[in-house]
Fold:
Amino acid sequence: MDKLLVHGGHTLGGSINISGSKNASLPILAAALLTDSDCIIRRVPDVSDTNYMIQILGALGADVERASGTVRISAQSIADTAPYELVRRMRASVCVMGPLLARLGRAVVSLPGGCIIGDRPIDLHIRGLKALGAQVEIEGGNMIFSAPDGLTGAEIDMRGTHGPTVLGTDNVMMAACLARGTTVIESAATEPEVIDLADFLNSLGAKVSGAGTRRITIEGVDQLGGGEHTVIPDRIEAGTFIAAAALAGDGVRIRRIKQKHLTAITDSLAEAGHRVEFDAAGESCTVRRGDTPCGCNISTAPYPSFPTDMQAQMTALLATSPGISVVRDTIFPQRFMHVAELKRMGANIKVDNGAAIVHGVKKLSAAPVMASDLRASAALVLAALTATGTTEINRLYHIDRGYEHIDEKLLSLGAAVERVRE
Ligand code: EPU
Structure:
């Protein structure tokens, strides 16, 4: 297990490029199972989650080649079963469900099991696929979907108690591409990653419209062909580096981004007293630490509101912002594992009923800390950048799930970080 040593107190400068989006890549890779023709997907980040999805596609029988950021997939003959050994390591593996069911009329996918960031049911995925005519049985920890005569388009409301579901919308959208007739998904997730998947599906010959709005319409087609696609920039990696630059930087330039995907994040940073200036095209920005940083209140909610995947990093930033901030997570109210570790570094934070109440302190101090999940580990890296001394972040594999070469990118900005291989 690798760990990261972060020697705090170095000022960040210079520029970095943001990688392709992990959360857009995962369903797009799975969608290649819908066709027996070749798919070429570019800017897939080299992180363990995408490598893992590539392994799953291989285990299902697809030929997959990866050359730097480009992945070629040929899923000519595939199996219908994704067993527990494959699914348990990454919850997003469930997005093979829709494509397998649509293509083969049967899908056996293990229930993904627990997740550290909170209870993550998949009832909405199941509800959506059932509405398309699939029968579902749960047996031995597996979901067995069958639709021997194919799927049929339907009107489906995907809203759950915490709002719409991103991967649930993706699963139903992918399955509906090969269903008979028209499917309308109401209360669809509007995240940019859903739009990117729809664009990829349309490049294969699907007829998806309305992605990015609450109502997506899919006219089923008999079969899909091959296609090529370039994945959108990772808005959460971008947000994480923007926060790092606000904490520890002096004019850091962040390139290969999409401004419109970052509005909620940059608005909150502006409220916390920092400056983010975009270029005219909205494809890069320069971040400057404010002279008088202050606290701010944040409440996560589905896109375009503040993303839950930036909650931990923002909490780390606010830990040393003067004043009191309240950070509420309405999507995953238990996603505060990072707080206990930040407190070990001297932060003054209380978690109460789905919210962190942060009293900004002057300085954090280094400590050995434990990464508990992907975004929590990013929060610890941010905290360590300005802490006094050397922070040792254990269980670095969490951060490698979703941040491409984070240590190299931080080094290139002037941070003093060392990956220690054990
Ligand atoms: N939910 C249900 N039933 C379902 C599905 C979801 O009640 O069947 C609830 C969830 O428990 C949660 C809310 O709906 O309270 C939203 O969850 P969603 O289904 O949208 O999450 P997801 O699609 O499984 C994706 C991202 C997550 C991100 C969430 C929310 C990927 C691969 N994962 O997960 O990303 O936090 O959307 O935006 O796209 C991460 O990258 O660190 C990460 C966890």
